[in-house]
Amino acid sequence: MTSGDSCRLVAGALDEELVTEAGVAANFTALAQHVTMPLMKSLIAKILVTLAVLYALAVASLAWAMHQPPDLFGRVMSHVPGPAMLVLPFETIWMRARAGTLHKGDQAPDFALRAYDKSSTVQLSSFRGNKPVVLVFGSYT
Hints:
With about 140 residues, this protein is mainly alpha-helical. It has one domain. It has six helices and two strands; from the N terminus they run ααααααββ. Strands 1-2 form a two-stranded antiparallel ribbon. Helix 3 packs parallel to helix 6 (about 90-95). The longest helix has about 45 residues, at about 20-65. The termini are far apart.
């Protein structure tokens, strides 16, 4: 079989509708859709994966910042745009990061504070077993 015979076989297999301009245009459109749909799906999938990775990084960064001392946390949060708080699970991460590990009946952690007159330092553990201690945070004005 020569190449001319194969061309005649292919041409003979085509319907008359395919040979017309409308048929060629319809086939080209179908071919373009067949080629572009997988590309579009692939592009959309890549965009969604990229957005998911960026979101996970933002949540992880926020969680890291919330576990830092207050001054560092404040510096980090001063750079976070306000609309990000609408998208990121701020409250959920905050409650987990600052929840602590104390439970009802546990001993209070020991700490030391300067006295009001700044003449001495008072340590909580020095009162343990002697008398009850009440901590009041606030103003008396």
